[in-house]
Amino acid sequence: MSEMVRFLMTKEKYPVNKLSKIVALAAMLLLVAAPALALAADPAPAADPAPGAAPAPAVKAAGPAGFSIYLGAAFGSGMIILGAAYGIGRIGSAAVESMARQPEVADSINKAMIVAAALIEGVTFFALIVCLLAVFFG
Fold first, then answer.
1. Which CATH number characterizes residue 126's domain?
2. Distance in angstroms (rounded) separating the CA atoms of residues 73 and 131
């Protein structure tokens, strides 16, 4: 048997070692924590203006700190949508499979699936609103 056929016949299709899982988790943690780390850095105090000079107008910096807030909110929103889609997909597939096995209880399974999907969507909308509030008022 060739190596490719043996690989395809194994139970685990895509083997992932422990180090790659740790690296992926650390990268996600860094992306999620980037806005908090950027906001924690205080800018250096400005030098006192010369006597009699007009004070400089206060300008809000929209540099890297502003970008990281938008990046964190965009990453968080994307993860929320992916998680909700995965959850609703799993609910739907499990419901269809159980309806195929026991057609006599299909009506109650359908109702329970719709309630569970609605709860997932409610949590998703709440989390998206939190991300939007972080962008606009954060």
1. 1.20.20.10
2. 5
